[in-house]
Amino acid sequence: QSVSNSMMWRAPCPLATPAGHSPRSHLLADALNNEAYRNATEATVFGPFFVDEAPQVEAGGDIAAGAPGEPAWVEGTVRDVDGNPLPGARIEVWEADEEGLYDVQHDDGRTYGRGRLVADDDGGYRFWGLFPTPYPIPDDGPVGDLLAATGRSPLRASHLHFMVSAPGCRTLVTHIFVRGDELLERDSVFGVKESLVHDWEHHSAGTPTPDGRDLDGRGWASTRFDVVLAPL
Ligand SMILES: [Fe+2]
Asked: Where does the secretion signal sit in this chain (predicted)?
């Protein structure tokens, strides 16, 4: 797209192996570099609630792990910019519960609403999580002063965090948002990008689930997120 990108040819990401990960030392730079490479998925803010060693979750597993909220099925693929699947890509996800709190904001050491997955041979991934809900960023101290001075709410638009990495690829730190969320226009940290706003479907109670999971009569949501990683 841009002149600088078109002048810099880079090899596509080589096929990933489950044993390997990208170096993670440039996470912040990746999150702040908001110019996506070609058709690569756009990045957004990392945020303060990532935990390095989240539970490993099998394909189709439940990262909510008991966190309250509407169950949501999320699936997609991880590919390079040329469309090649990236089997073994590492997918880390984390989100707040429906009260707007991350596990680490409770003082009892609980772990929920986060997990690590590995893309399958076709680069596919799938998991159960929670339909995202808004939450306030901590607004004490200077952040609160700034929000008050600018007349802004501390609320973040509803989102689900992703960090996706594969050997030879730039680690992607991003979120997906919810189309129709009234907070999209006034996200407290200006993290929203249109390409990251997703359609979510809501399915009424009793609608069969993709994997046959029994939700005890609850309704559920679903969305799809196809990730494209830029080469290093
Ligand atoms: Fe967040």
From this structure: none
